[in-house]
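User: I want to check something. If I give you two sequences, will you return the structure for each one separately, not as a complex?

Assistant: Yes, each is folded on its own. Here is the first sequence with its structure:
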Amino acid sequence: MNAAVLIEGLKKNYGDVEAVKNISFKIEKGNIFGLLGPNGSGKTTTIRCLCTLSKPDEGKIEVCGVSAIASPKQARKRLGYVAQEVALDKVLTGRELLQLQAALYHLPNKAAKERINQLLDLLGLQEYADKKTGTYSGGLRKRLDLAAGLLHQPDVLVLDEPTVGLDIESRFVVWDFLRKLREAGTTVLITSHYLEEVDALADRLAIIDRGVVLAEGSPSELKDKIGGDRVTLRIREFSPQEEAEKAKTQLLTLPFVEEAIINEAQGNSLNLVVQRESNPLTQIEKSLSEIGLPTFSMAQSRPSLDDVYLAATGRTLMDAELAAAGMRDLKKEKKQQMK
Protein backbone atom coordinates (compact mmCIF):
# COMPACT_ATOMS: atom_id res chain seq x y z
CA MET A 1 0.00 0.00 0.00
CA ASN A 2 1.28 3.47 -0.94
CA ALA A 3 2.20 5.87 1.84
CA ALA A 4 0.05 8.97 2.21
CA VAL A 5 3.14 11.15 1.75
CA LEU A 6 6.57 10.16 0.45
CA ILE A 7 9.44 12.65 0.23
CA GLU A 8 12.90 11.53 -0.88
CA GLY A 9 16.06 13.60 -1.36
CA LEU A 10 14.25 16.95 -1.35
CA LYS A 11 16.45 19.96 -2.10
CA LYS A 12 15.47 23.61 -2.56
CA ASN A 13 17.64 26.71 -2.87
CA TYR A 14 16.67 30.37 -2.93
CA GLY A 15 19.64 31.99 -4.65
CA ASP A 16 22.66 31.24 -2.47
CA VAL A 17 20.50 30.09 0.45
CA GLU A 18 20.07 26.33 0.89
CA ALA A 19 16.62 26.24 2.45
CA VAL A 20 16.34 22.46 2.19
CA LYS A 21 19.55 20.44 1.74
CA ASN A 22 18.38 16.83 1.79
CA ILE A 23 15.09 15.86 3.40
CA SER A 24 13.44 12.43 3.25
CA PHE A 25 10.53 10.98 5.23
CA LYS A 26 7.38 8.91 4.78
CA ILE A 27 3.94 9.32 6.37
CA GLU A 28 1.61 6.33 6.70
CA LYS A 29 -2.09 6.79 5.98
CA GLY A 30 -4.18 7.86 8.97
CA ASN A 31 -1.20 9.13 10.99
CA ILE A 32 -0.39 12.51 12.47
CA PHE A 33 3.20 13.31 11.49
CA GLY A 34 5.14 16.22 12.99
CA LEU A 35 7.97 18.25 11.49
CA LEU A 36 9.76 19.71 14.49
CA GLY A 37 12.38 22.39 14.17
CA PRO A 38 13.16 26.08 14.74
CA ASN A 39 12.12 28.88 12.42
CA GLY A 40 14.40 28.80 9.39
CA SER A 41 15.00 25.05 9.61
CA GLY A 42 13.30 24.27 6.29
CA LYS A 43 9.86 23.21 7.57
CA THR A 44 7.80 25.72 5.60
CA THR A 45 9.84 25.26 2.41
CA THR A 46 9.32 21.50 2.65
CA ILE A 47 5.55 21.74 2.91
CA ARG A 48 5.36 24.42 0.21
CA CYS A 49 7.08 21.96 -2.12
CA LEU A 50 4.72 19.19 -0.97
CA CYS A 51 1.67 21.40 -1.61
CA THR A 52 2.93 22.33 -5.13
CA LEU A 53 3.37 25.98 -4.13
CA SER A 54 7.11 25.82 -4.80
CA LYS A 55 9.04 23.61 -7.20
CA PRO A 56 11.96 21.71 -5.66
CA ASP A 57 15.40 21.71 -7.28
CA GLU A 58 15.77 17.98 -6.70
CA GLY A 59 13.87 15.13 -5.09
CA LYS A 60 10.75 13.03 -5.21
CA ILE A 61 7.36 13.97 -3.70
CA GLU A 62 4.29 11.74 -3.79
CA VAL A 63 0.82 12.23 -2.28
CA CYS A 64 -1.16 8.98 -2.10
CA GLY A 65 0.97 7.61 -4.91
CA VAL A 66 0.62 10.71 -7.14
CA SER A 67 3.71 12.74 -8.01
CA ALA A 68 3.33 16.30 -6.75
CA ILE A 69 6.01 17.35 -9.27
CA ALA A 70 4.82 15.57 -12.43
CA SER A 71 1.07 15.78 -11.68
CA PRO A 72 0.53 18.79 -9.38
CA LYS A 73 -3.18 19.21 -10.19
CA GLN A 74 -3.91 15.61 -9.24
CA ALA A 75 -1.86 15.93 -6.06
CA ARG A 76 -3.75 19.09 -5.03
CA LYS A 77 -7.05 17.21 -5.13
CA ARG A 78 -5.72 14.99 -2.33
CA LEU A 79 -4.27 17.84 -0.27
CA GLY A 80 -5.68 20.39 2.15
CA TYR A 81 -3.32 23.20 3.18
CA VAL A 82 -3.65 25.64 6.07
CA ALA A 83 -0.90 28.25 6.12
CA GLN A 84 0.66 29.70 9.25
CA GLU A 85 -0.83 33.15 8.64
CA VAL A 86 -4.63 33.22 8.67
CA ALA A 87 -5.89 35.24 5.69
CA LEU A 88 -9.64 35.90 5.92
CA ASP A 89 -11.77 38.57 4.27
CA LYS A 90 -13.00 40.55 7.27
CA VAL A 91 -16.21 41.75 5.61
CA LEU A 92 -17.44 38.20 4.90
CA THR A 93 -19.19 36.07 7.46
CA GLY A 94 -17.70 32.68 8.29
CA ARG A 95 -20.40 30.93 6.27
CA GLU A 96 -19.91 33.23 3.27
CA LEU A 97 -16.17 32.62 3.30
CA LEU A 98 -16.70 28.86 3.30
CA GLN A 99 -19.24 29.17 0.48
CA LEU A 100 -16.68 31.11 -1.56
CA GLN A 101 -14.04 28.47 -0.84
CA ALA A 102 -16.47 25.70 -1.84
CA ALA A 103 -17.10 27.47 -5.17
CA LEU A 104 -13.35 27.62 -5.80
CA TYR A 105 -13.24 23.85 -5.25
CA HIS A 106 -16.18 23.48 -7.71
CA LEU A 107 -18.28 21.67 -5.11
CA PRO A 108 -21.98 21.20 -6.06
CA ASN A 109 -24.24 23.57 -4.11
CA LYS A 110 -26.09 20.87 -2.15
CA ALA A 111 -22.89 19.00 -1.23
CA ALA A 112 -21.19 22.28 -0.31
CA LYS A 113 -24.04 23.31 2.02
CA GLU A 114 -23.98 19.92 3.78
CA ARG A 115 -20.20 19.93 4.10
CA ILE A 116 -20.11 23.50 5.45
CA ASN A 117 -22.69 22.71 8.13
CA GLN A 118 -20.83 19.54 9.06
CA LEU A 119 -17.56 21.42 9.53
CA LEU A 120 -19.21 24.27 11.43
CA ASP A 121 -20.60 21.68 13.86
CA LEU A 122 -17.32 19.78 14.20
CA LEU A 123 -15.32 22.92 14.90
CA GLY A 124 -17.88 24.57 17.19
CA LEU A 125 -18.49 27.48 14.82
CA GLN A 126 -22.25 27.38 14.24
CA GLU A 127 -23.04 30.25 16.61
CA TYR A 128 -20.41 32.44 14.89
CA ALA A 129 -21.06 31.33 11.30
CA ASP A 130 -23.16 34.37 10.32
CA LYS A 131 -20.94 36.95 11.99
CA LYS A 132 -18.25 38.82 10.08
CA THR A 133 -14.83 37.21 10.41
CA GLY A 134 -13.38 40.59 11.37
CA THR A 135 -15.04 40.12 14.76
CA TYR A 136 -13.50 36.67 15.33
CA SER A 137 -10.87 35.93 17.97
CA GLY A 138 -7.57 34.36 16.93
CA GLY A 139 -8.81 30.91 17.94
CA LEU A 140 -12.03 31.24 15.92
CA ARG A 141 -10.11 32.50 12.89
CA LYS A 142 -7.81 29.46 13.04
CA ARG A 143 -10.78 27.09 13.32
CA LEU A 144 -12.44 28.71 10.30
CA ASP A 145 -9.17 28.39 8.39
CA LEU A 146 -9.12 24.68 9.25
CA ALA A 147 -12.67 24.32 7.96
CA ALA A 148 -11.68 25.95 4.66
CA GLY A 149 -8.78 23.53 4.24
CA LEU A 150 -11.07 20.54 4.82
CA LEU A 151 -14.01 21.47 2.60
CA HIS A 152 -13.03 19.17 -0.26
CA GLN A 153 -12.36 16.26 2.13
CA PRO A 154 -8.64 15.87 1.38
CA ASP A 155 -6.77 12.64 2.09
CA VAL A 156 -3.88 14.64 3.57
CA LEU A 157 -4.20 17.84 5.63
CA VAL A 158 -1.04 19.96 5.86
CA LEU A 159 -0.83 22.51 8.67
CA ASP A 160 1.98 25.04 9.01
CA GLU A 161 2.31 26.01 12.69
CA PRO A 162 -1.40 25.34 13.40
CA THR A 163 -1.53 26.84 16.90
CA VAL A 164 1.09 29.59 16.84
CA GLY A 165 -0.19 32.65 18.70
CA LEU A 166 -3.23 30.88 20.16
CA ASP A 167 -4.13 30.79 23.85
CA ILE A 168 -4.02 27.46 25.67
CA GLU A 169 -7.77 26.84 25.48
CA SER A 170 -7.87 27.45 21.70
CA ARG A 171 -4.80 25.27 21.23
CA PHE A 172 -6.47 22.35 23.02
CA VAL A 173 -9.59 22.75 20.84
CA VAL A 174 -7.42 22.43 17.71
CA TRP A 175 -5.54 19.44 19.17
CA ASP A 176 -8.79 17.64 19.95
CA PHE A 177 -10.09 18.26 16.42
CA LEU A 178 -6.87 16.92 14.85
CA ARG A 179 -7.19 13.73 16.89
CA LYS A 180 -10.76 13.31 15.62
CA LEU A 181 -9.51 13.75 12.04
CA ARG A 182 -6.97 10.99 12.59
CA GLU A 183 -9.66 8.70 13.98
CA ALA A 184 -11.70 9.34 10.81
CA GLY A 185 -8.74 8.25 8.66
CA THR A 186 -7.34 11.63 7.54
CA THR A 187 -3.55 11.89 7.38
CA VAL A 188 -2.25 15.06 9.05
CA LEU A 189 1.14 16.71 8.65
CA ILE A 190 1.93 19.54 11.05
CA THR A 191 4.99 21.73 11.31
CA SER A 192 5.69 23.12 14.74
CA HIS A 193 8.36 24.46 17.04
CA TYR A 194 6.24 23.62 20.09
CA LEU A 195 7.73 20.52 21.69
CA GLU A 196 4.64 19.70 23.73
CA GLU A 197 2.41 19.95 20.65
CA VAL A 198 4.35 17.38 18.63
CA ASP A 199 4.80 15.14 21.68
CA ALA A 200 1.05 15.19 22.38
CA LEU A 201 -0.20 14.70 18.82
CA ALA A 202 2.31 12.98 16.58
CA ASP A 203 2.37 9.25 15.86
CA ARG A 204 5.76 9.87 14.27
CA LEU A 205 7.94 12.91 13.74
CA ALA A 206 11.06 14.15 12.04
CA ILE A 207 13.38 16.63 13.70
CA ILE A 208 14.87 18.96 11.10
CA ASP A 209 17.47 21.67 11.39
CA ARG A 210 19.30 23.66 8.71
CA GLY A 211 17.52 21.82 5.94
CA VAL A 212 18.26 18.22 6.93
CA VAL A 213 16.51 15.48 8.94
CA LEU A 214 18.41 14.79 12.15
CA ALA A 215 16.14 12.14 13.69
CA GLU A 216 12.90 10.35 12.83
CA GLY A 217 10.59 8.03 14.76
CA SER A 218 7.77 8.05 17.28
CA PRO A 219 8.19 10.39 20.27
CA SER A 220 8.66 7.41 22.61
CA GLU A 221 11.17 5.71 20.29
CA LEU A 222 13.31 8.81 20.00
CA LYS A 223 13.29 9.38 23.76
CA ASP A 224 14.11 5.73 24.46
CA LYS A 225 17.07 5.83 22.05
CA ILE A 226 18.90 8.40 24.12
CA GLY A 227 18.16 6.40 27.29
CA GLY A 228 18.64 7.25 30.94
CA ASP A 229 17.59 10.34 32.88
CA ARG A 230 18.72 13.86 32.12
CA VAL A 231 20.67 16.05 34.51
CA THR A 232 20.97 19.76 33.77
CA LEU A 233 23.91 21.25 35.65
CA ARG A 234 25.34 24.74 36.07
CA ILE A 235 28.71 25.13 37.77
CA ARG A 236 28.15 28.88 37.91
CA GLU A 237 25.40 31.06 36.50
CA PHE A 238 27.74 31.75 33.57
CA SER A 239 30.69 29.35 33.56
CA PRO A 240 34.00 29.86 31.74
CA GLN A 241 34.53 27.38 28.90
CA GLU A 242 37.62 25.95 30.62
CA GLU A 243 35.68 25.12 33.80
CA ALA A 244 32.87 23.52 31.81
CA GLU A 245 35.38 21.34 29.95
CA LYS A 246 37.08 20.41 33.23
CA ALA A 247 33.72 19.45 34.76
CA LYS A 248 32.76 17.42 31.69
CA THR A 249 36.00 15.43 31.81
CA GLN A 250 35.54 14.74 35.52
CA LEU A 251 31.89 13.72 35.28
CA LEU A 252 32.51 11.32 32.40
CA THR A 253 34.66 9.28 34.80
CA LEU A 254 31.58 8.51 36.90
CA PRO A 255 30.24 5.04 36.00
CA PHE A 256 26.60 6.16 35.75
CA VAL A 257 27.25 9.15 33.41
CA GLU A 258 26.72 8.01 29.83
CA GLU A 259 27.04 11.33 28.02
CA ALA A 260 27.84 14.98 28.70
CA ILE A 261 27.16 17.94 26.40
CA ILE A 262 28.25 21.53 27.04
CA ASN A 263 25.50 23.98 26.10
CA GLU A 264 27.38 27.15 25.17
CA ALA A 265 24.19 29.11 24.44
CA GLN A 266 23.09 28.69 28.05
CA GLY A 267 26.17 29.91 29.85
CA ASN A 268 28.20 26.70 29.31
CA SER A 269 25.77 24.61 31.33
CA LEU A 270 26.15 20.83 31.15
CA ASN A 271 23.48 18.39 30.00
CA LEU A 272 24.14 14.84 31.19
CA VAL A 273 22.60 11.49 30.33
CA VAL A 274 22.73 9.33 33.45
CA GLN A 275 21.65 5.86 34.42
CA ARG A 276 18.76 5.81 36.85
CA GLU A 277 20.85 5.70 40.01
CA SER A 278 19.31 6.08 43.46
CA ASN A 279 20.90 9.49 44.01
CA PRO A 280 23.09 10.70 41.11
CA LEU A 281 22.84 14.39 42.07
CA THR A 282 24.68 13.87 45.35
CA GLN A 283 27.45 11.91 43.64
CA ILE A 284 27.80 14.53 40.88
CA GLU A 285 28.10 17.37 43.41
CA LYS A 286 30.68 15.40 45.41
CA SER A 287 32.72 14.62 42.29
CA LEU A 288 32.85 18.29 41.26
CA SER A 289 33.78 19.34 44.78
CA GLU A 290 36.78 17.00 44.64
CA ILE A 291 38.29 19.06 41.81
CA GLY A 292 37.39 22.42 43.35
CA LEU A 293 34.30 23.22 41.29
CA PRO A 294 31.05 24.54 42.80
CA THR A 295 27.47 23.60 41.87
CA PHE A 296 25.24 26.57 41.09
CA SER A 297 22.14 24.53 40.14
CA MET A 298 21.22 20.99 39.20
CA ALA A 299 18.02 19.16 38.21
CA GLN A 300 17.12 15.63 37.16
CA SER A 301 14.29 14.68 34.75
CA ARG A 302 13.08 11.99 32.36
CA PRO A 303 14.00 12.39 28.65
CA SER A 304 12.00 14.86 26.55
CA LEU A 305 11.91 15.77 22.87
CA ASP A 306 14.14 18.73 23.72
CA ASP A 307 16.71 16.22 24.99
CA VAL A 308 16.40 14.37 21.67
CA TYR A 309 16.95 17.66 19.84
CA LEU A 310 19.91 18.52 22.05
CA ALA A 311 21.51 15.11 21.50
CA ALA A 312 21.12 15.49 17.73
CA THR A 313 22.31 19.11 17.41
CA GLY A 314 24.22 20.06 20.55
CA ARG A 315 21.72 22.83 21.32
CA THR A 316 18.15 23.03 22.59
CA LEU A 317 15.26 24.01 20.35
CA MET A 318 14.94 27.31 22.24
CA ASP A 319 18.62 28.05 21.58
CA ALA A 320 18.06 27.34 17.89
CA GLU A 321 15.04 29.68 17.86
CA LEU A 322 17.05 32.46 19.48
CA ALA A 323 19.91 31.96 17.02
CA ALA A 324 17.49 32.12 14.08
CA ALA A 325 15.89 35.29 15.48
CA GLY A 326 19.35 36.84 15.88
CA MET A 327 20.20 36.07 12.24
CA ARG A 328 16.94 37.66 11.06
CA ASP A 329 17.65 40.80 13.08
CA LEU A 330 21.19 40.96 11.68
CA LYS A 331 19.92 40.70 8.09
CA LYS A 332 17.37 43.47 8.72
CA GLU A 333 20.09 45.69 10.17
CA LYS A 334 22.34 45.12 7.13
CA LYS A 335 19.49 45.94 4.75
CA GLN A 336 18.78 49.19 6.61
CA GLN A 337 22.48 50.12 6.49
CA MET A 338 22.56 49.51 2.70
CA LYS A 339 19.64 51.90 2.26
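And separately, the second sequence with its own structure:
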Amino acid sequence: MSRTKNIAHRLPSVTMVLALAASGASWAGEVEEAIAKRLSESLPALGRVTVEPSQAPGLYKVVSEQKELIYTTEDGQFFFSGELLQLTDDGLVNLSESARADIRVASLAELGQEGIIRFQADGEEKAQINVFTDIDCGYCRKLHSEVPQLNALGITVNYYAFPRSGPNTPSFAKYESVWCADDQQASMDAAKLGQGVASASCANPVLEQYRLGRQLGVTGTPAIVLEDGNMIRGYVPAEQLAKGLGLSGVAQ
Protein backbone atom coordinates (compact mmCIF):
# COMPACT_ATOMS: atom_id res chain seq x y z
CA MET A 1 0.00 0.00 0.00
CA SER A 2 1.35 3.43 -0.92
CA ARG A 3 2.07 6.09 1.68
CA THR A 4 -0.73 8.26 0.23
CA LYS A 5 -3.31 5.49 0.50
CA ASN A 6 -2.21 4.72 4.07
CA ILE A 7 -2.74 8.35 5.18
CA ALA A 8 -6.09 8.53 3.42
CA HIS A 9 -7.15 5.33 5.15
CA ARG A 10 -6.45 6.84 8.58
CA LEU A 11 -8.33 10.15 7.94
CA PRO A 12 -12.08 10.31 8.71
CA SER A 13 -14.29 10.76 5.71
CA VAL A 14 -16.02 14.07 5.01
CA THR A 15 -19.35 12.34 5.63
CA MET A 16 -18.20 11.19 9.06
CA VAL A 17 -16.98 14.68 10.01
CA LEU A 18 -20.27 16.24 8.99
CA ALA A 19 -22.19 13.59 10.89
CA LEU A 20 -20.17 14.24 14.04
CA ALA A 21 -20.69 18.00 13.72
CA ALA A 22 -24.43 17.55 13.26
CA SER A 23 -24.53 15.24 16.26
CA GLY A 24 -22.76 17.86 18.40
CA ALA A 25 -25.13 20.62 17.27
CA SER A 26 -28.12 18.41 18.04
CA TRP A 27 -26.75 17.61 21.50
CA ALA A 28 -26.19 21.30 22.23
CA GLY A 29 -29.75 22.07 21.20
CA GLU A 30 -31.02 19.31 23.43
CA VAL A 31 -29.19 20.77 26.44
CA GLU A 32 -30.77 24.17 25.90
CA GLU A 33 -34.23 22.66 25.39
CA ALA A 34 -33.84 20.58 28.54
CA ILE A 35 -32.86 23.65 30.58
CA ALA A 36 -35.80 25.64 29.20
CA LYS A 37 -38.19 22.78 29.99
CA ARG A 38 -36.91 22.37 33.54
CA LEU A 39 -37.08 26.08 34.31
CA SER A 40 -40.55 26.52 32.81
CA GLU A 41 -41.84 23.61 34.89
CA SER A 42 -40.11 24.62 38.13
CA LEU A 43 -40.33 28.41 37.77
CA PRO A 44 -43.41 29.21 35.66
CA ALA A 45 -43.15 32.89 36.67
CA LEU A 46 -40.21 33.17 34.26
CA GLY A 47 -42.60 32.64 31.36
CA ARG A 48 -41.17 31.72 28.00
CA VAL A 49 -37.37 31.65 28.22
CA THR A 50 -34.52 31.67 25.73
CA VAL A 51 -31.39 29.69 26.55
CA GLU A 52 -27.93 29.82 25.03
CA PRO A 53 -24.37 29.07 26.16
CA SER A 54 -22.61 31.87 28.01
CA GLN A 55 -18.94 32.73 27.56
CA ALA A 56 -18.18 30.83 30.78
CA PRO A 57 -17.78 27.07 30.18
CA GLY A 58 -20.57 25.09 31.78
CA LEU A 59 -22.86 28.10 32.32
CA TYR A 60 -25.89 28.89 30.21
CA LYS A 61 -27.50 32.30 29.79
CA VAL A 62 -31.27 32.43 30.30
CA VAL A 63 -33.49 35.39 29.41
CA SER A 64 -37.02 35.30 30.81
CA GLU A 65 -40.15 36.61 29.14
CA GLN A 66 -39.82 39.67 31.40
CA LYS A 67 -36.27 40.31 30.06
CA GLU A 68 -34.64 39.09 33.29
CA LEU A 69 -31.16 37.62 32.91
CA ILE A 70 -30.04 34.57 34.91
CA TYR A 71 -27.38 31.90 34.54
CA THR A 72 -27.72 28.17 35.05
CA THR A 73 -25.59 25.06 35.03
CA GLU A 74 -25.91 22.53 32.25
CA ASP A 75 -28.33 20.36 34.23
CA GLY A 76 -30.53 23.31 35.16
CA GLN A 77 -30.11 22.48 38.84
CA PHE A 78 -28.04 25.46 39.99
CA PHE A 79 -28.60 29.04 38.86
CA PHE A 80 -27.91 32.61 39.90
CA SER A 81 -28.81 36.15 38.96
CA GLY A 82 -26.13 38.78 39.10
CA GLU A 83 -23.02 39.97 37.33
CA LEU A 84 -20.89 37.55 35.34
CA LEU A 85 -17.42 39.07 35.07
CA GLN A 86 -14.49 37.95 32.95
CA LEU A 87 -10.88 38.77 33.74
CA THR A 88 -9.09 39.68 30.51
CA ASP A 89 -5.75 41.25 29.61
CA ASP A 90 -7.57 44.59 29.55
CA GLY A 91 -9.15 44.12 32.97
CA LEU A 92 -12.60 43.04 34.11
CA VAL A 93 -15.36 42.78 31.51
CA ASN A 94 -18.98 42.72 32.64
CA LEU A 95 -20.49 40.01 30.45
CA SER A 96 -23.90 40.43 32.06
CA GLU A 97 -24.11 44.08 31.05
CA SER A 98 -23.11 43.13 27.50
CA ALA A 99 -25.93 40.59 27.50
CA ARG A 100 -28.38 43.22 28.79
CA ALA A 101 -27.28 45.56 25.99
CA ASP A 102 -28.18 42.85 23.46
CA ILE A 103 -31.56 42.40 25.17
CA ARG A 104 -32.25 46.14 24.92
CA VAL A 105 -31.42 46.24 21.21
CA ALA A 106 -33.66 43.25 20.48
CA SER A 107 -36.50 44.55 22.68
CA LEU A 108 -36.57 48.00 21.10
CA ALA A 109 -36.45 46.45 17.64
CA GLU A 110 -39.33 44.16 18.56
CA LEU A 111 -41.39 47.07 19.89
CA GLY A 112 -40.83 48.99 16.67
CA GLN A 113 -40.60 52.72 16.10
CA GLU A 114 -44.23 53.44 15.32
CA GLY A 115 -45.02 54.61 18.86
CA ILE A 116 -42.01 56.81 19.54
CA ILE A 117 -41.94 60.61 19.47
CA ARG A 118 -39.01 61.43 17.23
CA PHE A 119 -36.94 64.59 16.91
CA GLN A 120 -35.10 63.99 13.65
CA ALA A 121 -31.48 64.97 13.07
CA ASP A 122 -30.86 67.96 10.84
CA GLY A 123 -29.43 66.90 7.49
CA GLU A 124 -27.41 63.70 7.56
CA GLU A 125 -28.23 61.46 10.50
CA LYS A 126 -25.05 60.32 12.24
CA ALA A 127 -26.54 58.55 15.26
CA GLN A 128 -29.75 57.83 17.14
CA ILE A 129 -30.39 57.82 20.87
CA ASN A 130 -33.42 56.27 22.53
CA VAL A 131 -34.50 58.19 25.61
CA PHE A 132 -36.92 56.94 28.24
CA THR A 133 -38.30 60.23 29.51
CA ASP A 134 -40.64 61.73 32.09
CA ILE A 135 -42.18 65.05 31.08
CA ASP A 136 -42.03 66.40 34.66
CA CYS A 137 -38.45 65.31 35.39
CA GLY A 138 -36.09 68.28 35.79
CA TYR A 139 -33.07 66.67 34.11
CA CYS A 140 -35.31 65.34 31.33
CA ARG A 141 -36.33 68.94 30.68
CA LYS A 142 -32.70 70.03 30.67
CA LEU A 143 -31.86 67.31 28.14
CA HIS A 144 -34.85 68.31 26.01
CA SER A 145 -33.68 71.93 25.94
CA GLU A 146 -30.56 70.61 24.16
CA VAL A 147 -32.43 68.49 21.61
CA PRO A 148 -32.04 71.20 18.90
CA GLN A 149 -28.28 71.11 19.56
CA LEU A 150 -28.27 67.30 19.36
CA ASN A 151 -30.23 67.45 16.10
CA ALA A 152 -27.76 69.99 14.69
CA LEU A 153 -24.95 67.56 15.55
CA GLY A 154 -26.67 64.86 13.49
CA ILE A 155 -28.29 62.98 16.36
CA THR A 156 -31.91 61.82 16.17
CA VAL A 157 -33.68 61.67 19.52
CA ASN A 158 -36.33 58.97 19.94
CA TYR A 159 -38.53 59.41 23.02
CA TYR A 160 -40.06 56.48 24.87
CA ALA A 161 -42.54 57.08 27.66
CA PHE A 162 -41.47 56.52 31.24
CA PRO A 163 -43.65 58.63 33.58
CA ARG A 164 -41.96 57.71 36.88
CA SER A 165 -45.13 58.10 38.94
CA GLY A 166 -46.70 55.22 37.03
CA PRO A 167 -50.15 54.62 35.55
CA ASN A 168 -53.23 56.55 36.70
CA THR A 169 -51.25 59.62 37.74
CA PRO A 170 -51.30 63.20 36.37
CA SER A 171 -47.81 62.81 34.88
CA PHE A 172 -48.85 59.63 33.08
CA ALA A 173 -51.98 61.31 31.70
CA LYS A 174 -49.87 64.27 30.57
CA TYR A 175 -47.64 61.99 28.49
CA GLU A 176 -50.73 60.35 26.96
CA SER A 177 -52.05 63.81 26.01
CA VAL A 178 -48.73 64.69 24.38
CA TRP A 179 -48.71 61.44 22.43
CA CYS A 180 -52.31 61.93 21.29
CA ALA A 181 -51.75 65.54 20.19
CA ASP A 182 -51.97 66.44 16.51
CA ASP A 183 -48.42 67.82 16.67
CA GLN A 184 -46.52 65.57 19.08
CA GLN A 185 -43.24 67.49 18.83
CA ALA A 186 -44.82 70.88 19.53
CA SER A 187 -46.84 69.42 22.38
CA MET A 188 -43.71 67.81 23.86
CA ASP A 189 -41.84 71.12 23.59
CA ALA A 190 -44.63 72.90 25.47
CA ALA A 191 -44.93 70.20 28.11
CA LYS A 192 -41.18 70.17 28.76
CA LEU A 193 -41.36 73.95 29.32
CA GLY A 194 -44.03 73.41 31.97
CA GLN A 195 -46.76 74.89 29.82
CA GLY A 196 -50.27 73.51 29.83
CA VAL A 197 -51.03 70.60 27.53
CA ALA A 198 -54.52 70.16 26.13
CA SER A 199 -56.02 66.97 27.54
CA ALA A 200 -56.39 64.32 24.87
CA SER A 201 -57.01 60.60 24.83
CA CYS A 202 -56.57 57.93 22.18
CA ALA A 203 -55.17 54.43 21.78
CA ASN A 204 -51.54 54.94 22.75
CA PRO A 205 -48.32 53.01 23.60
CA VAL A 206 -47.46 54.87 26.83
CA LEU A 207 -48.21 51.96 29.17
CA GLU A 208 -46.42 49.46 26.90
CA GLN A 209 -43.32 51.66 26.73
CA TYR A 210 -43.38 52.26 30.49
CA ARG A 211 -43.53 48.52 31.16
CA LEU A 212 -40.73 47.86 28.67
CA GLY A 213 -38.57 50.47 30.38
CA ARG A 214 -39.01 48.70 33.70
CA GLN A 215 -38.08 45.38 32.10
CA LEU A 216 -34.94 46.90 30.56
CA GLY A 217 -33.71 48.23 33.88
CA VAL A 218 -34.85 51.85 33.70
CA THR A 219 -35.10 53.12 37.28
CA GLY A 220 -34.77 56.86 36.71
CA THR A 221 -34.97 59.39 33.93
CA PRO A 222 -33.61 60.32 31.55
CA ALA A 223 -32.34 56.87 30.62
CA ILE A 224 -30.49 56.99 27.31
CA VAL A 225 -30.18 53.74 25.37
CA LEU A 226 -27.55 53.91 22.66
CA GLU A 227 -27.73 52.05 19.37
CA ASP A 228 -25.50 49.28 20.72
CA GLY A 229 -27.85 48.78 23.69
CA ASN A 230 -25.64 50.34 26.33
CA MET A 231 -27.53 52.57 28.75
CA ILE A 232 -26.53 55.97 30.10
CA ARG A 233 -28.40 56.63 33.32
CA GLY A 234 -29.04 60.34 33.71
CA TYR A 235 -28.46 63.63 31.94
CA VAL A 236 -25.37 64.16 29.78
CA PRO A 237 -24.65 67.52 28.06
CA ALA A 238 -25.16 67.47 24.30
CA GLU A 239 -21.51 68.09 23.36
CA GLN A 240 -20.29 65.40 25.76
CA LEU A 241 -22.88 62.94 24.51
CA ALA A 242 -21.94 63.56 20.88
CA LYS A 243 -18.25 63.19 21.70
CA GLY A 244 -18.98 59.89 23.45
CA LEU A 245 -20.71 58.71 20.27
CA GLY A 246 -17.52 59.42 18.36
CA LEU A 247 -19.03 62.05 16.08
CA SER A 248 -16.61 64.12 14.05
CA GLY A 249 -16.81 67.88 14.05
CA VAL A 250 -17.57 68.04 17.77
CA ALA A 251 -15.44 70.38 19.82
CA GLN A 252 -12.76 68.52 21.77
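Because they were folded independently, the notes below concern the second chain alone. The domain at 110-244 is CATH 3.40.30.10 (Glutaredoxin). The two ends are 73 Å apart (CA to CA).
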